[in-house]
Amino acid sequence: MMFFSPSRPSVASGLWQDWRDDVACVFARDPAARGLPEVLLAYPGVHAVLLHRVTNRLWHADWKLTARLLAAFARWLTNVDIHPGATIGKRFFIDHGAGVVIGETAEIGNDVTMYHGVTLGGTTWNKEKRHPTLGNNVLIGAGAKILGAINLGDNVRVGANSVVIKDVPPCCTVIGIPGRIIQQKGIKIQDPRGIDLDHHLVPDPVGKALSCLVDRLDELENNQKRFVVAEETCGSCEAEGVCHGEDVVVLKQAAGGK
């Protein structure tokens, strides 16, 4: 039975309340929002969520084709692809919206914020739970990919462009490819390699590792100078390619040199 059936007024009133909450939460999370008409007319992320509230009710009322057609229209309109079967909690906000994909078995808690380019994707073709589950107050940065039937606890923050493929405990910050937990709430991480940052100071572990490698190469090259034999002292010995420091005399004599 459809969500607007007269026999189910509570469903329709619940939809209206969800819509109100979805619009109201924008003003708390986006300082660029200046008024209700602007949000209703110019925010594709809001349009996508409002339409999903309808398609999800159609889906669970077994109007699945109608739900998919309306979801396809919403994707064309907003560039946000949310499967009608996805479960989304209250006050869900997609900022900017473009390129967001949310799979069929994804579950999203209350007060979740998501930025453009995010994917809640599956890792199997089997008809089972194959998409992520997000807790309450989760923030997903732009371009992040959350893949598989994994769980992100409450208050988790995922850095932009991260790829998360394992469970993340509550109150953690995760970044990188693959995603790594860099900080937990109330815990200051001290790492000799420099990863000691808040979420707004996202580290560059690859750049840091390359810098360490360069320093190490410099050290190795300086040490190697002790084992390099000067060209004028090596003569025409056939073994010069294996001469090493103090062993040079022994090696040259063994090869017939002077």
From TrEMBL:
This is serine O-acetyltransferase. Belongs to the transferase hexapeptide repeat family. Keywords: Acyltransferase, Amino-acid biosynthesis, Repeat, Transferase. It catalyses: L-serine + acetyl-CoA = O-acetyl-L-serine + CoA. The keyword Repeat applies. It comes from Methylomonas rosea. The lineage of its organism: Bacteria, Pseudomonadati, Pseudomonadota, Gammaproteobacteria, Methylococcales. It comes from the Bacteria. Signal peptide: none annotated. SUPFAM superfamilies: Trimeric LpxA-like enzymes (SSF51161). It holds the Pfam family Hexapep. Its EC number is 2.3.1.30. One of its GO terms (molecular function) is serine O-acetyltransferase activity.
